[in-house]
Amino acid sequence: MALHQFCDGVKRRDFLKVGALTGLGLGLSNYLQLAQAGQVNKQAKGKAVIYIRLAGGPTHMDTFDLKPDAPEEYRGILKPIKTNVSGMEISEKLPLLAKVADKYTILRGVSHTLAAHELGTKYTLTGNRPLPSLEYPAMGSIVAKELPAPSDMPPYVAIPRVEQGAGYLGLQYGPLATNSSPKLNESYTVRGISLMGSMTVEDVARRDKLLASVDSRFRSIEKSSDVLSGLDQFSEQAFNMISSSRAREAFDVSKENKQLREKFGDGEVGQSALLAVRLIEAGVRFVTISTGGWDMHTDIFGNLDKRLPGVDRGLSVLLETLEERGLLESTAVVMQGEFGRTPKINTTRGGRDHWPRAMFTILSGAGMKTGQVIGASDARGEGPASTAISPDDIATSIFHSLGIDSHTEYQTNTGRPIMINRDGKLIPGLFA
Fold it and tell me: Are 182 and 194 in contact (CB under 8 A)?
């Protein structure tokens, strides 16, 4: 199922679709056969990540990096407004985020050279420049390997799905895709987590016993299979998740009070952010929220009128809620797209086109200093004013916030040694 189709005609497909194999939750068991938590890093200050992906490439010039003194064909029609941080200004279309600017850092002058959606997406989601000979894992897969999750919760969840998979790490570190986003005032279930229709836990137990018998037959045929090994353990974990009240309740946003649900707004970013909070509280380590529609080659200001209010409300309330629940200090929050958009407006279509040379990223939580702007683009937003911040640097800094050494070396299934991130550097000024 495609997540979104961009201007280049490339459809984004999720890496792992849970629940697609049967209607009785077998997809969850298959997912768990391939999803075992990695090693513990007990020294980590950060414990989890919420990553908001603005699929398609959001404009930096009209959101977090306005250029009011640039020529008219560059600066557009939106005006900057002051925030609650002295000297920091953002778009007038982001008034709620302006009031909580002390809770996040804006990275400006983020830059790379990959102007195609697929390549830019791979770069920003993995923190490694793509290679034709190697498929790098998404950051969420690294976190799933390195940090533990409770036995009845998946370590990595994608709402509704995410384009980049686990790469050379293998399927066991891929995300549990919800395949849908929650909506305000509507019931929400995730296939394989919620018990559907008249199905009971006892039904699952009987099916689980049957699967164990089938699994035993498979083992006698193919004892050396890595996929078949440990099926009892994974089958037990699948049953634990389905029968666990914590797992079912974590995915049930209706458990939150109506006032808070309405505060997050009726957009997909806000309601997905509320679900992300519940998942982090329950022990999930990495949640990706993907929202499309940012590939604005035409009528960019009309499209921003539709898209920015949801991001404004969703991210601002997310930061406030995490702080109120004591989770912001241990949860890294990230928001970015795969690239920025052309500083100069295309006059024939009234839009902005692909522009990886300058983009923004929002960071918060997990020990990162906030209420600041790091980096800068030049006077027309065409590129970094001085030293560029790369996707590699952002990934390394996120891993650092979790206590993960980005120079940790893994091996592919062919024995090739690969660092988590070879070229990234800590972003100066991001940590105390």
Answer: no
